[in-house]
């Protein structure tokens, strides 16, 4: 039996409210993978290599500033308020392709509060640290939940990460995608509508039969405008400016279709139970 036939049979048995959708599209950073734990670990290891351990420098704060600058950079491009010289996140993580963004790695390590701790870092150190984003691990529920969901539905990623990063990450974290989509393919970043629409087009599933899954409300708002069903998965300290538990489903007066506390909850929305 082919995988397509198996999924058709599984869909026939599905009894949940999402039994008739065609595909699930997942954000990756923060939604599927835990970037903070992994990046803080590698930054701390690099600092310690040069005698600057976590008791001296707040490497968790360093990682957060790096992430914040990345988010500001890509969101400003995706929303149309800026342009980018590159849609390759390995490049964006290293340097500010948008002039007003001052905290990506090359500029972050030059800030006075960090330069005193990072001045010994070599170009090879910084190159290798940038690749930490390729080595992220999934949240505890991610692989099992995706594996189960894949038995019933198409599952793909849609990330602002570049293609090589997403492929490396999928291999490292054993993420069982049917396909990997990067906004790099579309010369934009989310939340530009083009990213969502082109992903739906390539998998031949109309937007109103697609489900967008994310831990960031801005991502789901963009998908909802295009007719996609939305599932919010709250992750610890992930959705900037949003308090944990604040996002509610429409059934409780909120703006997303569903809120689940793990990927197992998504499987139940398809299968019932």
UniProtKB/TrEMBL annotation:
<dbReference type="InterPro" id="IPR023214">
    <property type="entry name" value="HAD_sf"/>
</dbReference>
<protein>
    <recommendedName>
        <fullName>Haloacid dehalogenase</fullName>
    </recommendedName>
</protein>
<dbReference type="Pfam" id="PF00702">
    <property type="entry name" value="Hydrolase"/>
</dbReference>
<dbReference type="GO" id="GO:0016791">
    <property type="term" value="F:phosphatase activity"/>
</dbReference>
<dbReference type="InterPro" id="IPR006439">
    <property type="entry name" value="HAD-SF_hydro_IA"/>
</dbReference>
<dbReference type="InterPro" id="IPR036412">
    <property type="entry name" value="HAD-like_sf"/>
</dbReference>
<dbReference type="InterPro" id="IPR051540">
    <property type="entry name" value="S-2-haloacid_dehalogenase"/>
</dbReference>
<dbReference type="InterPro" id="IPR023198">
    <property type="entry name" value="PGP-like_dom2"/>
</dbReference>
<keyword id="KW-0378">Hydrolase</keyword>
């Amino acid at each position: 039996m082919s995988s397509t036939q198996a999924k058709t049979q599984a869909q026939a048995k599905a009894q949940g409210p999402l039994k008739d959708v065609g595909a699930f599209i997942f954000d990756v950073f923060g939604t599927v993978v835990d970037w903070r734990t992994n990046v803080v670990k590698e930054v701390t290891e690099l600092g310690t290599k040069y005698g600057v351990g976590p008791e001296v420098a707040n490497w968790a704060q360093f990682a957060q500033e790096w992430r914040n600058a990345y988010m500001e950079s890509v969101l400003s491009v995706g929303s149309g308020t800026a342009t980018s010289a590159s849609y390759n996140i390995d490049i964006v993580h290293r340097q500010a392709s948008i002039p007003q963004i001052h905290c990506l790695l090359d500029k972050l390590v030059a800030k006075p509060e960090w330069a005193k701790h990072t001045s010994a870092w070599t170009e090879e150190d910084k190159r290798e640290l940038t690749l930490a984003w390729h080595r992220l691990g999934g949240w505890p529920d991610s692989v099992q939940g995706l594996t189960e969901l894949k038995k019933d539905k198409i599952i793909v990623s849609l990330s602002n990460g570049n293609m090589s990063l997403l492929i490396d990450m999928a291999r490292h974290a054993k993420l069982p995608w049917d396909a990997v989509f990067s906004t790099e393919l579309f010369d934009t970043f989310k939340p530009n509508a083009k990213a969502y629409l082109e992903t739906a087009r390539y998998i031949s599933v109309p937007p109103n039969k697609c489900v967008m899954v994310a831990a960031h409300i801005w991502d789901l708002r963009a998908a909802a405008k295009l007719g996609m069903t939305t599932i919010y998965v709250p992750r610890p300290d992930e959705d900037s400016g949003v308090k944990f538990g604040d996002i509610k489903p429409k059934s409780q007066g909120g703006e997303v279709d569903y809120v689940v506390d793990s990927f197992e909850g998504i499987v139940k929305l398809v299968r019932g139970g």
